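Support request, please re-run this one:
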Amino acid sequence: MPENRTAPARAAVERGASRGWVWLAAWPVAAVFVLSNAATPLYVLWQREIGFSKGTLTVIFAFYIVSLLGSLLVSGVVSDRLGRKAVLLPALGLALAACAVFATASTVAALIAARLFTGIAVGAVVSAGMAAVTDVAAGTAAVTDVAGQSRKRLAALLASCAMVFGAGLGPLLAGVLSETAPAPTVTVFVVEAVLLATAVLAVLRMPVRRPTAPVAGPWIRVPGVPRGDGLRLALGIAVFAPGITATSFMLSLGPSLLSGLLGTTSRTIAGAMAFAMFLAATGVQFAVQKLNRRTILTAGAISTTLSMITLTTAVHTSSVPALIASALLAGTGQGMGQLGALSLLNHSVPAHRLAEANAALNIGGYIPAGALPVSTGYLSDTIGLTNGTTAFALTLLTLAVTGGLMVATFRPRR
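Re-run finished. Output below.
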């Protein structure tokens, strides 16, 4: 009898501990995304110390995108077949190696190597890491379908917020530490290495099981989703891709716009604007989490559209408030697009295909996020930053409106 009376209490304690793991499982995602953008405010220092052109800087960024996309072609399928830890632990090892290379970089080749390592790690965590958060949530949910779906929505929220919060924290830390601490291109990567070490400990103890369901097909392939989920994936990409492209533009060319509008090259100010943008992306997801997925995606498309309108206003009127408003709207657009897209996939894609589905979503987002800002940079060298930015804004505005119309028009069958 005493054992029967204490069993429910023990179960309640275990569920409480498990709910904590849903939060901890998101930490490796945040830690790697801190690294993803930490180098952004420091390139001006490396340019001065090493001596390379803006064109070379674009090449360094391109290597990051290529390695990220290459990682997404492999990491999702490998994670679904071998387990989340089998992908996350090597990825965190590469992230630690990237910190070491960044901290000691004295050549362009070293910067390229560090960005390659970073891109592979990022590709792994947006597929396997985000799927791990959902696995932990699903594995600890109550037996009812309602509770399980509620926990999956929480998982999508935490995984998405971990990504954008880490992405914003990286440039802020780098900007502040590079102007206040000794060794400006070293200190932030020492701090980041400590964060990554704690993420390794979290993954080692993470309560996720090895997959049991078989996954057919080649190990290296363009990621996809099960039959019947293609429309969900397409709707998610239609809103998520313009949102993440808008924030990528702010990260890559935002400092140049700040320099033109404010006349400042402060790394702290540039980092603070990026942090505010991703803080908005984090906050809006908590604000809208209880809305239905179609409403969240529609609001995300509207926010990205408004961001492009205010961006055009900013560059044509030299308005700093309009530029800041554009950055905040870009952040909310990415945040809602990302949350809505992940929620759509978490709702219907089975666990043994979820990492691959996450990889497919991110490939759809990162291709334009890499191509359009880089193209705008080269275009701006020819026709000027104002005209180049305007062309970018009109292109992305069209994509965002199209995505919003798709969400309003099409409904998945199940």
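The domain at 12-208+223-409 is CATH 1.20.1250.20 (Growth Hormone; Chain: A;). Residues 1-5, 7-17, 140-147 have pLDDT under 50 and may be disordered.
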